[in-house]
Hints:
Layout: E1 2-6, H1 10-21, E2 27-32, H2 35-44, E3 46-49, E4 60-63, E5 70-72, E6 85-90, H3 99-107, E7 109-118, E8 133-139, E9 142-147, E10 150-155, E11 158-163, H4 181-196, E12 200-204, H5 207-228, H6 239-259, H7 267-277, H8 284-290, H9 301-311, H10 316-329
Parallel strand pairs: 1-2, 1-6, 2-5, 3-10, 6-7, 7-8, 11-12
Antiparallel strand pairs: 3-4, 8-11, 9-10
Amino acid sequence: xxxxxxxxxxxxxxxxxxxxxxxxxxxxxxxxxxxxxxxxxxxxxxxxxxxxxxxxxxxxxxxxxxxxxxxxxxxxxxxxxxxxxxxxxxxxxxxxxxxxxxxxxxxxxxxxxxxxxxxxxxxxxxxxxxxxxxxxxxxxxxxxxxxxxxxxxxxxxxxxxxxxxxxxxxxxxxxxxxxxxxxxxxxxxxxxxxxxxxxxxxxxxxxxxxxxxxxxxxxxxxxxxxxxxxxxxxxxxxxxxxxxxxxxxxxxxxxxxxxxxxxxxxxxxxxxxxxxxxxxxxxxxxxxxxxxxxxxxxxxxxxxxxxxxxxxxxxxxxxxxxxxxxxxxxxxxx
Length: 334
Protein backbone atom coordinates (compact mmCIF):
# COMPACT_ATOMS: atom_id res chain seq x y z
CA UNK A 1 0.00 0.00 0.00
CA UNK A 2 1.22 3.49 -0.86
CA UNK A 3 -0.07 6.56 0.98
CA UNK A 4 0.87 10.06 -0.20
CA UNK A 5 0.42 13.14 1.97
CA UNK A 6 0.34 16.55 0.27
CA UNK A 7 1.12 19.36 2.70
CA UNK A 8 3.77 19.52 5.42
CA UNK A 9 2.17 21.91 7.86
CA UNK A 10 1.27 20.87 11.40
CA UNK A 11 -1.49 18.40 10.48
CA UNK A 12 0.35 16.97 7.48
CA UNK A 13 3.48 16.38 9.55
CA UNK A 14 1.41 14.83 12.34
CA UNK A 15 -0.23 12.29 10.03
CA UNK A 16 3.02 11.59 8.20
CA UNK A 17 5.16 11.13 11.31
CA UNK A 18 2.69 8.88 13.10
CA UNK A 19 2.17 6.74 10.00
CA UNK A 20 5.88 6.24 9.31
CA UNK A 21 6.59 5.47 12.98
CA UNK A 22 3.95 2.74 12.89
CA UNK A 23 5.22 -0.81 12.32
CA UNK A 24 3.60 -1.25 8.93
CA UNK A 25 4.39 -2.47 5.44
CA UNK A 26 2.79 0.63 3.89
CA UNK A 27 5.00 3.13 2.06
CA UNK A 28 4.37 6.74 3.07
CA UNK A 29 5.38 9.72 0.92
CA UNK A 30 5.27 13.35 2.04
CA UNK A 31 5.09 16.13 -0.55
CA UNK A 32 6.34 19.46 0.82
CA UNK A 33 6.02 23.03 -0.42
CA UNK A 34 9.77 23.63 -0.50
CA UNK A 35 12.89 21.68 -1.44
CA UNK A 36 14.47 22.87 1.81
CA UNK A 37 11.86 21.20 4.02
CA UNK A 38 12.07 17.89 2.18
CA UNK A 39 15.87 17.96 2.35
CA UNK A 40 15.99 18.71 6.08
CA UNK A 41 13.55 15.92 6.93
CA UNK A 42 15.40 13.43 4.75
CA UNK A 43 18.70 14.38 6.40
CA UNK A 44 17.67 15.02 10.02
CA UNK A 45 14.40 13.14 10.55
CA UNK A 46 11.34 14.46 12.40
CA UNK A 47 10.77 15.18 16.09
CA UNK A 48 7.31 14.95 17.71
CA UNK A 49 6.66 16.46 21.14
CA UNK A 50 3.77 14.79 22.96
CA UNK A 51 4.44 15.61 26.60
CA UNK A 52 1.21 17.53 27.24
CA UNK A 53 -1.19 14.92 25.85
CA UNK A 54 -1.13 12.10 28.40
CA UNK A 55 1.18 10.41 30.85
CA UNK A 56 1.57 7.30 28.70
CA UNK A 57 3.15 8.99 25.67
CA UNK A 58 6.85 9.45 25.20
CA UNK A 59 7.53 13.16 25.87
CA UNK A 60 9.51 13.33 22.65
CA UNK A 61 9.72 10.96 19.69
CA UNK A 62 12.46 11.23 17.09
CA UNK A 63 11.91 9.54 13.74
CA UNK A 64 15.28 9.06 12.01
CA UNK A 65 16.10 10.19 8.50
CA UNK A 66 16.43 6.60 7.27
CA UNK A 67 12.64 6.25 7.34
CA UNK A 68 11.89 9.48 5.47
CA UNK A 69 10.33 9.76 2.01
CA UNK A 70 9.90 13.52 1.69
CA UNK A 71 9.81 15.23 -1.71
CA UNK A 72 9.16 18.78 -2.92
CA UNK A 73 5.90 19.22 -4.82
CA UNK A 74 7.61 21.38 -7.44
CA UNK A 75 10.01 18.52 -8.21
CA UNK A 76 7.23 15.98 -8.66
CA UNK A 77 8.10 15.42 -12.32
CA UNK A 78 11.48 14.06 -11.21
CA UNK A 79 9.76 11.19 -9.41
CA UNK A 80 7.52 9.81 -12.15
CA UNK A 81 9.11 6.39 -11.56
CA UNK A 82 7.50 6.10 -8.12
CA UNK A 83 4.40 3.85 -8.25
CA UNK A 84 1.06 5.66 -8.02
CA UNK A 85 -0.51 6.14 -4.61
CA UNK A 86 -3.42 4.03 -3.39
CA UNK A 87 -4.53 6.82 -1.06
CA UNK A 88 -3.73 10.54 -1.07
CA UNK A 89 -4.27 12.74 2.00
CA UNK A 90 -4.51 16.44 1.16
CA UNK A 91 -3.67 18.42 4.29
CA UNK A 92 -2.93 21.85 2.83
CA UNK A 93 -5.08 24.80 3.87
CA UNK A 94 -8.16 25.75 1.88
CA UNK A 95 -6.42 28.78 0.40
CA UNK A 96 -3.72 26.54 -1.07
CA UNK A 97 -6.01 24.06 -2.83
CA UNK A 98 -5.63 25.44 -6.34
CA UNK A 99 -6.11 24.03 -9.81
CA UNK A 100 -2.32 23.87 -10.12
CA UNK A 101 -2.00 21.78 -6.95
CA UNK A 102 -4.86 19.52 -8.00
CA UNK A 103 -3.04 18.96 -11.30
CA UNK A 104 0.09 17.89 -9.43
CA UNK A 105 -1.89 15.58 -7.17
CA UNK A 106 -3.45 13.99 -10.26
CA UNK A 107 0.03 12.93 -11.34
CA UNK A 108 0.26 10.75 -8.22
CA UNK A 109 -3.20 9.25 -8.66
CA UNK A 110 -4.02 6.03 -10.44
CA UNK A 111 -7.43 4.97 -11.68
CA UNK A 112 -8.45 3.52 -8.31
CA UNK A 113 -6.76 6.06 -6.03
CA UNK A 114 -8.85 7.44 -3.16
CA UNK A 115 -8.28 11.14 -2.38
CA UNK A 116 -9.07 12.45 1.10
CA UNK A 117 -9.19 16.22 1.73
CA UNK A 118 -8.86 17.47 5.30
CA UNK A 119 -10.46 20.89 5.53
CA UNK A 120 -11.51 23.75 7.79
CA UNK A 121 -13.89 25.71 5.58
CA UNK A 122 -16.37 24.81 2.89
CA UNK A 123 -15.36 21.93 0.67
CA UNK A 124 -13.55 22.48 -2.60
CA UNK A 125 -14.52 19.26 -4.36
CA UNK A 126 -15.51 21.17 -7.52
CA UNK A 127 -11.80 21.29 -8.36
CA UNK A 128 -11.54 17.51 -8.51
CA UNK A 129 -12.20 15.91 -11.89
CA UNK A 130 -13.41 12.35 -12.34
CA UNK A 131 -12.60 9.45 -12.25
CA UNK A 132 -11.25 9.68 -8.71
CA UNK A 133 -13.29 9.05 -5.60
CA UNK A 134 -12.85 12.11 -3.38
CA UNK A 135 -13.62 12.19 0.33
CA UNK A 136 -13.89 15.07 2.75
CA UNK A 137 -12.33 14.69 6.18
CA UNK A 138 -12.57 16.69 9.38
CA UNK A 139 -10.08 16.33 12.22
CA UNK A 140 -9.89 17.78 15.70
CA UNK A 141 -6.31 16.61 16.28
CA UNK A 142 -4.25 19.42 17.76
CA UNK A 143 -0.80 20.08 16.33
CA UNK A 144 1.61 22.99 16.12
CA UNK A 145 4.62 23.08 13.83
CA UNK A 146 7.61 24.26 15.85
CA UNK A 147 10.11 24.18 13.00
CA UNK A 148 10.50 22.68 9.54
CA UNK A 149 10.91 19.17 10.97
CA UNK A 150 9.48 19.43 14.49
CA UNK A 151 5.87 19.38 15.64
CA UNK A 152 4.07 19.52 18.97
CA UNK A 153 1.07 17.19 19.20
CA UNK A 154 -1.03 19.43 21.44
CA UNK A 155 -4.19 17.39 21.71
CA UNK A 156 -5.71 14.05 20.78
CA UNK A 157 -8.81 14.43 18.63
CA UNK A 158 -11.12 12.57 16.30
CA UNK A 159 -11.08 12.30 12.52
CA UNK A 160 -14.17 11.74 10.39
CA UNK A 161 -14.17 10.78 6.70
CA UNK A 162 -17.16 10.90 4.36
CA UNK A 163 -17.81 10.43 0.66
CA UNK A 164 -18.76 13.40 -1.50
CA UNK A 165 -21.69 12.83 -3.83
CA UNK A 166 -21.40 15.66 -6.35
CA UNK A 167 -17.84 16.35 -7.45
CA UNK A 168 -18.82 18.91 -10.07
CA UNK A 169 -20.39 21.35 -7.65
CA UNK A 170 -19.49 22.93 -4.34
CA UNK A 171 -22.96 24.43 -3.96
CA UNK A 172 -24.05 24.92 -0.38
CA UNK A 173 -26.47 22.29 0.81
CA UNK A 174 -25.38 19.49 -1.53
CA UNK A 175 -25.86 16.19 0.22
CA UNK A 176 -23.19 13.60 0.65
CA UNK A 177 -23.91 10.00 -0.14
CA UNK A 178 -23.84 7.01 2.15
CA UNK A 179 -20.76 4.83 1.85
CA UNK A 180 -21.84 1.43 0.57
CA UNK A 181 -20.24 -1.86 1.60
CA UNK A 182 -18.06 -2.07 -1.51
CA UNK A 183 -16.67 1.41 -0.93
CA UNK A 184 -16.11 0.64 2.74
CA UNK A 185 -13.94 -2.32 1.75
CA UNK A 186 -11.88 -0.08 -0.54
CA UNK A 187 -11.29 2.64 2.07
CA UNK A 188 -10.88 0.27 5.03
CA UNK A 189 -7.14 -0.45 4.50
CA UNK A 190 -6.41 3.26 4.98
CA UNK A 191 -8.59 3.41 8.10
CA UNK A 192 -6.73 0.40 9.50
CA UNK A 193 -3.37 2.09 8.94
CA UNK A 194 -4.52 5.30 10.61
CA UNK A 195 -6.03 3.45 13.55
CA UNK A 196 -2.85 1.42 14.05
CA UNK A 197 -0.91 4.70 14.00
CA UNK A 198 -3.01 5.93 16.92
CA UNK A 199 -5.71 8.01 15.24
CA UNK A 200 -9.34 7.84 16.36
CA UNK A 201 -11.02 7.68 12.96
CA UNK A 202 -14.43 6.71 11.62
CA UNK A 203 -16.52 6.87 8.46
CA UNK A 204 -19.52 9.19 8.31
CA UNK A 205 -22.63 8.96 6.17
CA UNK A 206 -23.38 12.62 6.91
CA UNK A 207 -20.06 14.38 6.40
CA UNK A 208 -21.89 17.59 5.41
CA UNK A 209 -23.07 18.03 9.00
CA UNK A 210 -19.54 17.38 10.26
CA UNK A 211 -18.16 19.97 7.82
CA UNK A 212 -20.69 22.64 8.79
CA UNK A 213 -20.20 21.87 12.48
CA UNK A 214 -16.47 22.50 12.18
CA UNK A 215 -17.12 25.57 10.03
CA UNK A 216 -19.23 27.24 12.73
CA UNK A 217 -16.63 26.41 15.40
CA UNK A 218 -13.88 27.94 13.28
CA UNK A 219 -16.03 30.94 12.30
CA UNK A 220 -16.49 31.85 15.97
CA UNK A 221 -13.08 31.03 17.43
CA UNK A 222 -10.51 31.70 14.72
CA UNK A 223 -11.18 35.33 13.70
CA UNK A 224 -11.59 36.58 17.26
CA UNK A 225 -8.38 34.98 18.49
CA UNK A 226 -6.61 36.48 15.47
CA UNK A 227 -8.05 39.98 16.00
CA UNK A 228 -7.49 40.04 19.77
CA UNK A 229 -4.18 38.11 19.58
CA UNK A 230 -5.24 35.69 22.32
CA UNK A 231 -5.21 31.96 23.03
CA UNK A 232 -8.45 30.03 22.59
CA UNK A 233 -9.24 29.88 26.30
CA UNK A 234 -9.00 33.64 26.68
CA UNK A 235 -12.18 34.04 24.63
CA UNK A 236 -14.15 32.98 27.72
CA UNK A 237 -12.73 35.44 30.25
CA UNK A 238 -15.31 38.23 29.83
CA UNK A 239 -18.97 38.75 29.04
CA UNK A 240 -18.00 41.18 26.28
CA UNK A 241 -16.03 38.53 24.42
CA UNK A 242 -18.77 35.95 24.88
CA UNK A 243 -21.27 38.47 23.52
CA UNK A 244 -19.28 38.90 20.29
CA UNK A 245 -18.90 35.12 19.99
CA UNK A 246 -22.65 34.74 20.38
CA UNK A 247 -23.33 37.27 17.63
CA UNK A 248 -21.15 35.34 15.19
CA UNK A 249 -22.74 32.07 16.24
CA UNK A 250 -26.32 33.32 15.89
CA UNK A 251 -25.64 34.65 12.39
CA UNK A 252 -24.18 31.35 11.22
CA UNK A 253 -27.12 29.38 12.62
CA UNK A 254 -29.57 31.73 10.89
CA UNK A 255 -27.72 31.26 7.59
CA UNK A 256 -27.71 27.48 8.03
CA UNK A 257 -31.45 27.45 8.70
CA UNK A 258 -32.14 29.53 5.59
CA UNK A 259 -29.94 27.21 3.51
CA UNK A 260 -31.59 24.07 4.85
CA UNK A 261 -28.39 22.90 6.52
CA UNK A 262 -28.83 20.57 9.47
CA UNK A 263 -27.58 22.02 12.74
CA UNK A 264 -27.66 21.17 16.44
CA UNK A 265 -28.73 23.11 19.51
CA UNK A 266 -25.66 21.66 21.25
CA UNK A 267 -23.14 23.46 19.03
CA UNK A 268 -22.86 26.57 21.19
CA UNK A 269 -21.83 24.51 24.20
CA UNK A 270 -19.44 22.55 21.98
CA UNK A 271 -17.73 25.80 20.97
CA UNK A 272 -17.28 26.74 24.62
CA UNK A 273 -15.91 23.27 25.35
CA UNK A 274 -13.43 23.55 22.47
CA UNK A 275 -12.19 26.83 23.99
CA UNK A 276 -11.78 25.14 27.37
CA UNK A 277 -10.16 21.98 25.99
CA UNK A 278 -7.71 23.95 23.83
CA UNK A 279 -7.31 26.87 26.21
CA UNK A 280 -3.56 27.24 25.67
CA UNK A 281 -3.67 26.64 21.91
CA UNK A 282 -2.91 29.25 19.27
CA UNK A 283 -5.56 29.04 16.55
CA UNK A 284 -4.34 28.45 13.01
CA UNK A 285 -5.65 31.88 11.99
CA UNK A 286 -3.77 33.65 14.77
CA UNK A 287 -0.63 31.70 13.83
CA UNK A 288 -1.01 32.87 10.22
CA UNK A 289 -1.47 36.49 11.30
CA UNK A 290 1.58 36.38 13.58
CA UNK A 291 3.66 34.95 10.72
CA UNK A 292 2.36 37.47 8.19
CA UNK A 293 0.67 34.78 6.12
CA UNK A 294 -2.65 34.91 4.29
CA UNK A 295 -5.35 33.39 6.50
CA UNK A 296 -8.26 31.10 5.70
CA UNK A 297 -10.80 33.82 6.56
CA UNK A 298 -12.09 33.78 2.96
CA UNK A 299 -13.09 30.11 3.29
CA UNK A 300 -14.46 30.40 6.82
CA UNK A 301 -16.30 33.64 7.60
CA UNK A 302 -16.17 34.62 3.93
CA UNK A 303 -18.16 31.48 3.14
CA UNK A 304 -20.76 32.44 5.73
CA UNK A 305 -21.09 35.93 4.22
CA UNK A 306 -21.58 34.51 0.72
CA UNK A 307 -24.14 32.00 1.94
CA UNK A 308 -25.98 34.79 3.71
CA UNK A 309 -26.06 36.83 0.51
CA UNK A 310 -27.42 33.84 -1.42
CA UNK A 311 -30.29 33.39 1.04
CA UNK A 312 -30.97 37.02 1.95
CA UNK A 313 -29.56 36.84 5.49
CA UNK A 314 -27.57 39.77 6.87
CA UNK A 315 -24.27 38.81 8.52
CA UNK A 316 -22.82 42.05 9.93
CA UNK A 317 -20.69 40.42 12.65
CA UNK A 318 -19.10 38.01 10.18
CA UNK A 319 -18.67 40.88 7.71
CA UNK A 320 -16.69 42.97 10.17
CA UNK A 321 -14.42 40.21 11.48
CA UNK A 322 -13.79 39.14 7.88
CA UNK A 323 -12.60 42.61 6.88
CA UNK A 324 -10.63 43.16 10.09
CA UNK A 325 -8.65 39.96 9.54
CA UNK A 326 -8.22 40.63 5.82
CA UNK A 327 -6.85 44.09 6.59
CA UNK A 328 -4.12 42.68 8.83
CA UNK A 329 -2.08 41.16 6.03
CA UNK A 330 -3.21 43.03 2.95
CA UNK A 331 -1.66 46.31 1.84
CA UNK A 332 -3.64 48.66 -0.32
CA UNK A 333 -2.65 48.59 -3.97
CA UNK A 334 -0.92 51.77 -5.09
